[in-house]
Amino acid sequence: MITTENFYIQYHNADKLGYFPTENTNSKSLISDLILDDSQKYEKSWIYTSKKTALKSKGGTCFLIVGKTEDKIKNYYLWCYFRIENIEKNIVDIIVGGTGKDFKHPVLLNNLEDFDGFKKFCGNFGIGFQKIDKHDFSQTLQLFINEVKVSDPFSDRKLYLEKEIQKFNDKMLLIEPERKIQTINKLVRKDSKIVQLLKEYVDYKCQFPDCNSIIPDKKRGVNYVEVAHIKAVSKGGKGIIGNLIVLCPNHHKEFDLGERNIFEINNNRISGVLNNKNFQINLFNNYSYKINDSSKKYN
Ligand SMILES: [Zn+2]
Prior knowledge:
By secondary structure, the chain is α+β, with helices and mostly antiparallel strands. It is 24% helix and 30% strand. A hairpin with a 3-residue loop joins strand 11 (260-265) and strand 12 (269-274).
């Protein structure tokens, strides 16, 4: 569900520009024949504008409308929408970007009720980026958002984290053994990206079963946790998924110093005995896809 209250449109005149807003679409196609990828695009939808109103649009929702003459009729399609998350300004333009979706089948607007009134309200779309809350047609546009079901921002963030962790995991897999200790010291010990991502992914909670350790880090506003290597760096343990575990400082020390016997370890699970206590930790059981390991990369 979209929870914002401010709605904006941007207009893309495909006749004038000669291309569609989505890459790899043939601009000679009829828009009604196109099938677009309607998966969520994280922080990857954006528009350029010179309108100052864009500077205050953060948190709103932007609709992109595409106009194209087809069979001598100017057709207007609702092409995509996105939540406005980032606003950047350079000398020429304001770049408004965020997370959103293309419509699998762009929605022809011409025949919808009060579209003509809306078009006039928008200066026949000659104004460019503008706020449209004051026109009832913005509610019509919102109906199309609900139909394609935006997932909630929390799970968006989880999915984003999964992708980022995967990216950095792939990088860490490529690090040569001789550079490993040096690099891991530099990258992981000092809170490398993958370590930061993992901590956030588990909501800054110790992954040891039934641990309720809370150490508020006032400065950073999160619970203080550490990331441990299951197989020590000095013994060749890599800073990758399957060998990293988020622990509170107590469990971290117990893990490093205690008497432990690991029965099973893979990308998903580690089980064993630690100081006479059996444990099983599901490392990344929330992942919606399986994290690649080095032998099965990109499967
Ligand atoms: Zn703990």
